[in-house]
């Protein structure tokens, strides 16, 4: 774990902390139903996070290629939705958690529909619903869609594809079952070939982080700026990921982590924090349900530590609180801080910067601040002897996500460690770099993590 | 449907529209397993919405009392969570959608746990986990919790309670089953008495709207200001409502409506839009799964029309777009509007008000604006002959929820209908009261609804 | 319904009674998943019964060919048992009623075994367990086995086979499912081809009656005298037919009818009464579970009317009863009868025949009597003017099956109608041709049926 | 294992052989859900067999009392059938194997019927269907019925009853479930009290052997001669025992053992061989499904060794074979044997006895022979020096059950060991006491067992 060199390295540092804590977890076993998966190095472990501005933060083996497998399902589902519409797709596949394994044969009585697009049966149906003038054309469109989500041209691992074809008896069974039941109308052999090929597309942890970020960003790839799909489609995809993505313990997953996610049997796991970022994890050892052991723990840890649960309500300050706070600011410590800042501003503009934050500060907002500060620090004349002084005006902040609290704390720690001064104009004691940060347990945790990240007293 | 007299009546008007459209829907049948429910007037229909500032908007029969039934489950679950903690509660009851009916007997193999706290079996367990020195004390605490959520002292319908006791064979079976399996350790008769009593608590549609709003508000009752439970508990409760609240079609519900919700067999339905509002619906005719027919349709319509899906990503404007927009503002039509506003402002301060909106505008933000404007209009000297002019500066708005778009449109329509002028300083053509509102289909819908509400051309 | 010309026509007459009663039952619908089945004439109805001496009794359309379909399963199972042994076969397929439809996908957890050899999945496995040097050889052995059971060379309906192949998606699914689970190890395409071919073998109602009789006869074809399989294998096959042959209402079937049976979707139904006869039914209209409506009712009526339930205990006379009966015989009416018989015997040997029946008289024993009497009557000089007198000595009969009681009563009626005299030496009042036949309800029924059969007063 | 003193002790000796072989089997565990069962001596092991003449053969702990538990179900079902009729009973309880555990909660969709009368839920229904003017009267009738089946006045273990009442949560659940579903209409508390009381009736292995024999004997208790129920009811009861008596492996049980049977959780197991005998087994260690480990193995061994499968077809000789055999008899060895017998008969009538066996010889017939011979031997003057000579004329035997073959072989061995001569007049080489007994593997086994029983070379 390298010390952060730039402010924006703070995010990388946190990924490093999670990586280092989990790398010793050797539970689970590599998938072995085909030789190519069985041969995977079980020690590999990569964590990547892609923000909505397209910056990708990485820790560990984030550039090792692996086959996307079931993590392809949400993205192909998005293509089926765009080709056929929500109603037409769900006339052929349900939207209910199955309470069963990923290769369940349970079809809905009467309709013959598989339970949802995240189990194999449902994914075979969504693959068959992608339009195309031929099987080749259909797969070309799928590969183009996956590539657009990832922001680079992806390719197929032909050896894995051949093995999947050979060992795919159960999927072949599912397909024939659905054809018999009428929920699959396309030819079985062709559809399965496309499905196996889609599962054999090679990606890295960084790729799937970008793919998740594209969903989180309402369909615009934050790396390339390309609109891949609509915001509405992303909402549908993330809903299905939230309720059905983690197979038979979807409810528990939503309760504990609260993030839309999807795992693949090669060890990949993609998650999306709507409006915030995408997460790409890779570690080949799987739990009993076929999800990456370290991937699940890492995603869960990031989600709970950072308060990223989709039903999490950010800390909100009432108007009354803001007014009272402003009064305090004028009269007390806050005012003094302000006075110092003003004096510094007058004395030497090159050494001083002020950022006013407003409204709801989440990961995305905090990340923008880090990147802005990095730019300012880089632009500052290298020969300045006096330390930089940064003023963060939080007066008009109305909501603070836990992850943003942690990022501001880490920012302050990072700056102080380099001799800079950070002065927060914050009337409610949410100040950074001064006493009074300990409103809540979650907050404490964040601060301890931040300290750990800059080298001081990591306590767990 | 009365015409709105105050700006904040706009919300009521919309509830009226929904009410009037659905009141003719007579599908379903009143529950008849006990005489008290069978006797309910099937025509009753009430819709109530409670914002996070405690204002309750109402349409129809929102003051008729009915028994809360299963809609009590999320709130008693919150009490069990607070008494025992998340892990202890879920050691005894699962968190998975059951894919089965509300009175399913399916217990988890090995643990004997019922699937989740929203089916009867699970709710009996959570009731048993509420602490109390005696059965009476336990129920007193439950009643106090329900009352705190509702913001008034609730009471029990003793006749319903007696009938529930008498007809409760299946629930009795569930309780004995769980006692045999070890997931229920409390005495059966006592626990069921408490459970039946909790189901027999009398509420109105308005009450449950406040209850839902308290969840949406992170545990603080917006009516009374009382903190009823923690934000963390509310997150857990709403997650379970989202995944398990609508019984066997939970996944479909989350895909289509995307709101945590819970129905009761007397016809009540409570829903929460986190950070926005609570919804209380009442209509006694039930569908096959035991949920209010009109309640389900109304909740779904409100959720989809207003973009309230928990995984909905608001429209976001990039920094580049904002800058460009500001430039346009200076050079073009926007600037002209601004000039008019400035001139008006100078000429007659009594007739002119400017509101600057910033950041993310959702239902809560838009509602505050309506209430503020109402106050200003009321405070304005009654003898002014010149029309009021209202300027809405949207330049620094970065995100607009669909419902807020609709509310601003309705505001403009309302004001113009009363001879007021509304000038929006909005460089991106999101202006209200001028041409150019038609960016999206959702937006169009909103505008049409707004027009309908003020009497002009309702087209469906 | 022709009047019986020979004594052994009595059995045919009873089949005619059943045929005529049920031919008006037009419930159910012809299978329509392939055109060849859909085109079947729904009015066809054939009943055939084959005794253990190889005589086949027929009523209705017993020579119309149809495809054997699932009625092939017990016979191919017998071949798998002979090739692999009971344990090896049941290591790959269970022996439990599935409580599910014939095309159920339920496999046993852990082993992947289909529930039993009578559902499609299980039958596919047993087909795969038949030995053969090639697919052709394997099918040749199956066809030879079916032919040996039927006592003639059977052939395949190639058009049905082609259609089955085309429409067999669900069976293909089952096969892939089992291959994935390890219970099927043979290649899917080849195994299914053999399976579909086996289902397309053409048989008549008479053929399957002989097939059932071969099972009932402990593996020796009563028509050809060929030993087709062992008595032990027949016991296994009939057990599986008894518990699993009638799909999801196997228990009810065993309770009500108590005969091992198997139906096919083309309308065939084969049943075996161990040690008694085989039954072949054909009528294309099917009930919801896919069994011939008339076939099920006919088999049930024959089984209950004739007391053929496998757990039925025949009427037994204790030693004391027999002794007392002998004493009565000497002293009373019986003796008188005997005296008449002796006198007749002395006077004219050509006109008199005595049959002594001993031990347990069942269908098989009574049928032998009918055939013997026919032979004697045919051999009797045609110019005899005096009537034949037949003496049946029942003194040493210890057990009488219901069907035998009925057959003896019918014999007496037939003879009397032709002016013959029948004198029974039966001390217990079981005499035929004299008063005192009415010991039991079952007996009454038999007599009424017998009367009906010879033209007198059919009352239902 | 004592040497047999009388011919009829041969049966006892065989039970001893089975007892001694299995007594070392200590698999399984004593039921421990109530203290009274947990305290049972796990070493106890009793085997009793009751023939249709009322003779009870015993080995081991056949007089130790234990509670009948679920083995009461078939007998109470018989009472419900007699009180209500088959159709009325099965309108409330199904007849299908459940494929589930004895305490399954699965009720039939639509009807709410439990699957069959042998699982707890079904047995609670049949108990409720027994008529009675009061709960006491109803139980008095049940106790009278059980006593009539056993042939002695039975009583209740009040301590077990009290414990069952206390620990009966799951059964209580089942009862409430069925009351909710309409299949149970009687009051729950009262019905369960009766049910628990019926389960607490004390019996011995010998008692349940008599109970099973009464079923096998068509409803007449062979000990008391009392007609307890009708033959038709016995057929229904034994059918349900055959298909549903052994819980979730009923199909396997019927395939392997082929005997109607029912186990109880205290270690009792009752089986019936229709027309042959009843079997009572007792050993408290249970397998996973709650059936006595040794009981299951012993019943299975007796059934397979003796060819008692209900679908077993006895060896049958055709008429042609019998005629040919008679010819051989006159001409050859058989004739010579006959000549010896005739000579002995003339020389000394006191020393010679001839038995002619006819028709179908099963356990019941062979047992009668043993008892007759015992009587003759006892009646023979004690001072005769010359050995007794017994002639068995088998010429007219048409069918031989495996168990009868074995009994005749054992008879011969027993006689020879005491210096007596046994001469069989049997043209087909089925002779006993001479060479040529080895037609079949089953026969060999029987002979080896017989030898073992008389002390010579037990080989396993």
UniProtKB/TrEMBL annotation, chains A, B, C, D:
Keyword Membrane: no
Coiled-coil annotated spans: none
Residue span, STAS domain: 342-460
NCBIfam families: Gln_ase
Alphabetized UniProt keyword annotations: Acetylation, Hydrolase
UniProt-listed Enzyme Commission number(s): 3.5.1.2
Similarity annotation: Belongs to the glutaminase family.
Residues that, per the record, bind substrate: 70, 120, 164, 171, 195, 247, 265
Listed name of the protein: Glutaminase
Organism in which the protein naturally occurs: Microbacterium suwonense
Gene: glsA
Substrates-to-products reaction catalysed: L-glutamine + H2O = L-glutamate + NH4(+)
Uppermost EC category: hydrolase
Assembly: Homotetramer.
């Amino acid at each position: 774990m390298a010390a952060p060199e730039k402010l924006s390295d703070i995010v990388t540092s946190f990924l490093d902390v999670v990586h280092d804590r989990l790398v010793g977890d050797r539970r689970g076993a590599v998938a072995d139903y085909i030789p190519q998966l069985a041969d995977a190095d079980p020690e590999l472990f990569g964590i990547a996070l892609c923000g909505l501005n397209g910056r990708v933060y990485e820790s560990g083996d984030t550039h090792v290629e692996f086959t996307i497998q079931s993590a392809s399902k949400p993205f192909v589902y998005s293509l089926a939705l765009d080709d056929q519409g929500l109603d037409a797709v769900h006339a052929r596949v349900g939207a209910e958690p199955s309470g069963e394994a990923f290769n369940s044969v349970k079809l809905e009585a009467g309709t013959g529909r598989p339970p949802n697009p995240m189990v194999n049966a449902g994914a075979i149906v969504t693959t068959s619903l992608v339009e195309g003038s031929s099987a080749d054309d259909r797969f070309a469109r799928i590969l183009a869609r996956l590539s657009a989500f990832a922001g680079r041209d992806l390719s197929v691992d032909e050896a894995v594809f051949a093995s999947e074809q050979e060992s795919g008896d159960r999927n072949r069974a599912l397909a024939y079952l659905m054809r018999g039941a009428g929920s699959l109308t396309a030819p079985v052999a062709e559809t399965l070939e496309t499905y196996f090929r889609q599962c054999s597309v090679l990606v890295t942890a960084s790729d799937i982080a970008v793919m998740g970020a594209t969903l989180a960003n309402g369909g615009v790839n934050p790396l390339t700026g390309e609109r891949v799909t609509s915001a509405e489609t992303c909402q549908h995809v993330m809903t299905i990921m939230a309720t059905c993505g983690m197979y038979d313990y979807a409810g528990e997953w939503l309760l504990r982590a609260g993030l839309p996610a999807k795992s693949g049997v090669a060890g990949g796991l993609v998650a999306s924090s709507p409006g915030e970022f995408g997460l790409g994890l890779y570690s080949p050892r799987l739990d009993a349900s076929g999800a990456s052991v370290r991937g699940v723990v890492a995603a869960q840890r990031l989600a709970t530590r950072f308060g990223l649960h989709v039903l999490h309500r950010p800390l909100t300050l009432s108007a009354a609180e803001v007014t009272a706070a402003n009064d305090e600011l004028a009269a007390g410590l806050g005012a003094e801080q302000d006075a110092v800042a003003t004096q510094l501003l007058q004395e030497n503009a090159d050494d001083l910067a002020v950022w006013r934050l407003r409204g709801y500060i989440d990961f995305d907002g905090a990340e923008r601040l880090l990147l802005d500060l990095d730019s300012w620090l880089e632009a500052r004349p290298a020969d300045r002897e006096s330390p930089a002084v940064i003023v963060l005006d939080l007066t008009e902040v109305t909501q603070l996500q836990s992850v943003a609290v942690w990022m501001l704390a880490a920012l302050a720690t990072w700056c102080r460690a380099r001799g800079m001064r950070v002065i927060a104009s914050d009337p409610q004691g949410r100040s950074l770099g001064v006493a009074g940060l300990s409103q809540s347990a979650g907050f404490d945790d964040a601060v301890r993590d931040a300290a750990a990240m800059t080298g001081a007293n990591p306590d767990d």
